[in-house]
From TrEMBL, chain A:
Domain of life: Bacteria
InterPro entries named among the record's database cross-references: UGSC-like_dom, UGSC_seleno
UniProt xrefs under NCBIfam families: UGSC_fam
Name of the protein this chain belongs to: UGSC-like domain-containing protein
Ranges for domain UGSC-like: 5-175
UniProtKB/TrEMBL annotation, chain B:
Protein name per the record: Uncharacterized protein
Domain of life: Bacteria
Taxonomic lineage of the native organism: Bacteria, Bacillati, Actinomycetota, Actinomycetes, Pseudonocardiales
């Protein structure tokens, strides 16, 4: 009845295909973990604590730290290539705003496309934006780790506690095994 | 036409509007159903090719062409001849580095579009009384077209990719003409480097607008102190550099000009006097004492990054000394660009 009405919406300019998840290692022992932080308050601190816990609990070989300065744009190509070359798995975070939550999901998928297992951390307040981005990228239902909101106002102890809390999900997200910690 | 036939046609129009709601094409208000011939009517008013990209969000793999903009301008209720203004508005928005982050942001910023030139009168763009609306089709629908493009073409919709905490009142309704006729100064487009009399659009993304009502003094500097107090409030002090702009009423602008202030003098005065003390910032939990950074000195925080980042424009009726402080979004700075409006046959 309304066929003559022009649809004002548009599809993405490029055809999107689902990104298959990169193959997961069975455990993290001896592997190098990338920490891709953004500029949100406490993002770097949370990833740093996660890295420390992965060293002591999972026996990782080391971490590679990178920081993304734009909260909106995808991870720069050189940083992506660098992480893909040096790391076995990457932890991305923290999605804690409208733009950066969606952007973090896109970065996680970009790493998966490079063959690097990734796990993205978002605060639960922004799951709608994260889900919308996963769908836009052709990967609806892409798994990521949700942490309680807010993160920005936590003190050092609070950030450490949040890292403890999220560790099993991070390990589970980038390996085929459950966390050594969680299994213990 | 018989009364019955008239009812049937209007019922059909109503159901077309309902169809648009069902498809999720509207911003909450009714839209105009768009047909292919209507789109051609709009495109006839621009010399720009229909497949030219006028807006893009690379991180979302989205872009908007002239034709898609025309569809959404029609949907918004624009007249076909408004299309060149909508396109120039996007040209101006693209120059703002913060614009790619704006549409998804928790800040929920609004584009303020300022139109200069004779086109204001040709299209009926209000620049005098009640300039922030409502009541003027061109002002309302040009601003609305920008919002419908964000929603429908760039695909940023509330509760999905759009994550505004509250948003700002009047988002996608802020299109004003500069009151060039009663401004004591050169036009905004002229200040930004275009020949006087050029049809142009300037854009700035805003967090909010706040009135300064000062009909109390004949002293121009006292008016500036009053404006400085609003610019310097701690709620707007985020990061090392907040910013501000001024939509001055005709009376305030003329009062300042009569006291010898040019626009650059107003900018310079406010840059120097809009400083919030460290003690006040600390009381609000935003202390910066001891930190290094642009804008921080022993007195406190300079609220403006530089004199020229303070937008100064003149709009509204010459009936009261009431002005508006506007609050730019983001920290990257305003582009300070006025984009010429390209119309069919005007090249």
């Amino acid at each position: 009845m309304f066929d003559a009405m022009i649809d004002p919406t548009a599809n993405p300019a490029e055809a999107v295909r689902a990104t298959p998840p990169a193959p997961r290692p069975d455990r993290l022992r001896g592997l190098t973990v990338g920490l891709l932080a953004n500029t949100k308050a406490n993002a770097e601190d949370l990833l740093e604590r996660v890295g420390e816990l992965l060293a002591t609990r999972e026996g990782i070989a080391g971490v590679v730290r990178r920081k993304k300065l734009s909260i909106t744009d995808p991870v720069p190509a050189d940083v992506l290539a660098d992480l893909a070359r040096q790391c076995d798995v990457v932890v991305v975070g923290v999605g804690d705003c409208g733009s950066c939550s969606a952007s973090a999901i896109a970065d996680g998928l970009a790493l998966e496309a490079e063959g690097i297992p990734a796990v993205v951390i978002c605060t639960e307040a922004f799951s709608a934006a994260a889900d919308a981005m996963a769908e836009l990228q052709g990967s609806p239902g892409y798994e990521y780790v949700r942490i309680p909101h807010p993160l920005a106002l936590l003190d050092a102890e609070g950030v450490r506690a949040r890292a403890e809390q999220v560790l099993p999900a991070i390990v589970g997200g980038v390996t085929t095994a459950s966390s050594a910690t969680a299994a213990a | 036409m018989t009364a019955t036939a008239g009812h049937e046609l209007l019922d059909y129009a109503r159901s077309a509007i309902e169809h648009a709601y069902e498809r999720g094409w509207t911003d909450g208000l009714p839209v105009v159903p768009v047909t292919a011939p209507m789109v051609e009517e709009f495109l006839a008013h621009t010399p720009r090719p229909r497949d030219e990209v006028i807006a893009s969000l690379p991180h979302l793999k989205r872009r908007c062409t002239v034709e898609q903009a025309a569809v959404n301008a029609a949907l918004a209720g624009c007249r076909p001849e408004y299309l060149p203004v909508v396109l120039a508005a996007w040209d101006a928005l693209r120059r703002d580095r913060v614009s790619t982050a704006a549409w998804q942001s928790t800040s929920g910023p609004a584009p303020l579009l300022i139109v200069n030139g004779p086109i204001r009168h040709e299209l009926g763009i209000n620049c005098t009384g009640g300039v922030f609306g409502p009541g003027f089709r061109a002002n309302a629908t040009i601003a609305r077209a920008v919002g419908l493009i964000v929603r429908n073409v760039l695909g940023v919709r509330p509760h999905e990719l759009e994550q505004a905490t509250q948003g700002i009142p009047g988002r996608f309704s802020l299109c004003i003409g500069e009151n060039e006729e009663e401004s004591p100064w050169e036009s905004l487009a002229s200040e930004l480097g275009l020949p006087e009399g050029t049809d142009a659009v300037t854009a700035l993304l805003l967090r909010t607008c706040e009135f300064v009502d000062n009909r109390h003094t004949r002293d121009a500097e006292e008016v500036l102190w009053d404006i400085a107090d609003t610019i310097s409030r701690t709620g707007a002090a985020i990061g090392r550099h907040s910013s501000a702009g001024l939509v001055l009423s005709v009376e305030h602008a003329q009062q300042l000009a009569a006291a010898g202030f040019g626009k650059a003098d107003v900018q310079r005065w406010l840059y120097e006097h809009c400083v919030r003390s460290h003690a006040d910032l600390e009381r609000a939990g935003k202390g910066l004492r001891g930190l290094e950074g642009p804008g921080i000195d022993e007195h406190g925080l300079h609220m403006l990054p530089s004199p020229e980042q303070l937008l100064v424009t003149v709009a509204g009726a010459r009936n009261a000394a009431i002005s508006m402080v506007v609050r730019p979004f983001g920290f990257a700075g305003w582009s300070r660009v006025a984009q010429p409006i390209q119309r069919a046959g005007s090249e």
